[in-house]
Amino acid sequence: TWYENTYPGCQVDSANHLYNYLFAPNSQWPAHFSSRASLFDYFRNVANEYGVSDRARLSTRVCSLAYRDDDHCWEATLEDSDGNTVRECFDSVISACGQLNTPAMPDIPGVETFQGIAFHSARWEHQHDLKGKRVAVIGTGCSATQFIPEIADATDSLTVFQRTPNWLLPMDNYHEPMEEEQLWCLRNLPFYDRWYRFYLFRSRAMDGPLPFLYGEAGWQGEPQSVGPANAMLREAMEAYIREQAGDDRDLADRLVPDYPPGGKRPVLDDGSWISTLKKANVHLVTDAIDRIVPEGIRTRDGQTHVFDAIIYGTGFHAQQFLSTLKVTGRDGRDLHEQWHGDPRAYKGITVPGFPNLYMLYGPNTNIVVGASIIFFSECEMRY
């Protein structure tokens, strides 16, 4: 995540003091939600300090894994950067290849025909200067809401194509540095760092919002809610969006989601998202895209929008677990055929018929409410 995503404004959206290893705590994060550079340095330093780097074989692709019934080992087919392949055997395999590392391009006709600059946000092409250009962004998820406010002022015009709006979770300190007084407490007061982490986990990440997400059988109240507490949350979150939009009721109507809060991971916001959409050179388009054409994007209302650059903020193939390699278990069974488009695993970690194969960040371990994928990964490793 923090190696490959280098787009402007890239930062964590879990509170940073939750987003580090329990065995390697960092009490001195520079911000409440730090930048990509700070996170990359932290994880690289942890890898070096604990000897992971010395054991890493880089520029090596795992092409396939095959379980051998006769000697109960996993035969891995490996390919180096020169295309040479070798087979090696291992007693156990842990997949830590993640979910959010294979960019998803949208299934829109004509993507390859566009004659201007085009790239995915997870493969940001920094050689391009967007100053004075007519730029389109497709997508309004977590990545897009981070980089759009960063690039908007430099462009001549910025058009944002939205398919599904996201709920905004107010977070006043989203772009704020850590207060020096709090950093002092974290450095000097015994156990304060552990208490602060526990406070973040209980009040803001997990137990705090959880009661608002339970459904109630037979609920007939507020549409697009699943129970009375969820309806209260929806009312508050909708009021936040409408307050941000101000007198522009049309903009507010297009930004209020039509699904219950908690149905998707919300976007953290300190007011910068809607204030960016309200700028004179920024335009929000909610008409469906018909196709990409050489000069830009054609929407289904027949209008052609002309652009110099298109940036795809369209996320990742998050549900295609282990999609980059073939995995064969006992009796020659294929893992992807067994899943048949519906990945499942015990505790998100192990799969019947695939002995000694473990997954971190496996099926149904993603986080909708909050907390920290780092904590989840540590739980999975302890298992």
Protein described:
It is a single chain. The protein has 383 residues and is α/β, with parallel strands linked by helices. Helix content is 25%, strand content 19%. The chain has helices spanning 36-49, 52-55, 142-151, 180-188, 192-205, 228-245, 249-255, 272-277, 335-339, 373-382, and strands at 60-68, 73-80, 85-90, 93-95, 117-120, 134-138, 157-161, 168-170, 267-269, 282-285, 289-293, 296-299, 304-306, 309-312, 326-328, 357-359. Strands 5-14-6-7-10 form a 5-stranded parallel sheet, with no helix packed on it. It has a 4-stranded mixed sheet with strand order 3-2-1-15, with no helix packed on it. A hairpin with a 2-residue loop joins strand 11 and strand 12. Helix 6 (228-245) crosses helix 7. The longest helix has 18 residues, at 228-245.
